[in-house]
Each structure stands twice: as structure tokens, then as C-alpha cells.
Amino acid sequence: MANGFSLSLLKFVGCGFSEKRASLLMMCLALLLFQGCATLQRSSEIAAPTETTAQPTPSQPVPAQPMAKKNSPVEATLPQTGQASWYGAQHQGKQTASGSIYDQASLTAAHATLPFGSKIKVTNLANGKSVEVEITDRGPFAENRIIDLSQAAAKALDIIESGTATVRLEWSSGQ
């Protein structure tokens, strides 16, 4: 139907022209029509570039691993002195950045860059009390804080009531 319409249109337009000009006009229009169709077909045939690195597909599904957040590019150096805070019941039973489950009764902590599993001695500078904690999470996310302690670690340092304290972080003697 489109071809019949195109030919009728070309004959109508060609009436006012000489036969040579009408033929030339018809050829130009036909070329434009075919060029447009060729371009449409061609763009759908062009495949998007694909990566050539083949990944082996496992024959059995791989169990999902906990998504641990990556360490920051700059590792902390110890000793450090700064503000500590603690987190407790609202995080109980939730997965930490290291993949472990938070237990407020365990001696754990969150630090922005120390490697997961690091054992750190935390000393409350106001009262001299110390506790050894394991880094299992990332944080703290409040400004001017260098470590978030579990509720058990905060109790050991006697900072439950105040919520924060100035502390010194050092590598534990077992590291």
C-alpha cells in the first residue's frame, strides 16, 4: 500500500515537470525512501559491544555471602584519641558490616577504617578503665567520634550514662 501511494504521489508531482525531470525526481524520492528503510533495518541489526571476558557459570548455585562494606582506602594508625559513643538495643540481632550479627552483650565496636577482627584496647581517659574490643562494624557516623562501642564495652568503660567519653585506642597486647 505504501508503494502504491508513493507511486501515485510521484506521478502527481511529476505531471508539472518534463519527463526527464519527473524521472529524476522519482529516482531521488525512491532513493530517499529506500535509504530511510535501510537505515532503520541496519540500526536494529547492529549489536551492542559485548565484553569478551568469559565468566564461568557454576553448576550449582553459590550461597549468598554477607555483603561486607569495604575498608576505607586509608587505614587508621594507632594510638588514637577522641570521642567514643555506644550503640545497643536498636541494633541487637542485626548484621554488621563484617557480616557478623551484632550482640550488645559482646565486647565489639565499630570503627571507620580498622580491619575487621582487629583487637583494640579502649581506655576511658576520665576514669582510666580499659576494655579490649573486636572491630566488627563500620562507624561511627556521628561527627567527631572515632569509635562506637557495644553496650557491654560501654558498661566496662562506665560510659552508659554519659553516652560518650574521651578515649584512647591502642592495639591490644595480643595483636
Structure write-up:
- It is a single chain.
- The chain is of the alpha/beta class.
- The protein has 2 domains: 2-41; 80-171, Beta Barrel (Barwin-like endoglucanases), CATH 2.40.40.10.
- Helices cover 27% and strands 22% of the residues.
- The chain contains 3 helices and 6 strands; from the N terminus they run H-H-E-E-E-E-E-H-E.
- The protein has helices at residues 2-14, 19-45, 151-157; strands at residues 80-87, 108-110, 119-124, 130-137, 145-150, 164-171.
- Strands 1-5-2-4-3-6 form a 6-stranded mixed beta barrel.
- A hairpin with a 5-residue loop joins strand 3 (119-124) and strand 4 (130-137).
- Helix 1 packs antiparallel against helix 2.
- It is rod-shaped, with a radius of gyration of 36 Å.
- The termini are far apart.
Count of helical stretches: 3
| CATH class call of the largest domain | Mainly Beta
Q: How many whole angstroms does the radius of gyration measure? A: 36 Å
- As a percent range, the share of strand residues is 15-25%
Helical residue percent band = 25-40%
Major sheet: arrangement of strands: 1-5-2-4-3-6
Global mean pLDDT: 78
Just name the CATH architecture of the largest domain. Beta Barrel
Oligomer: single chain
Envelope shape = rod-shaped
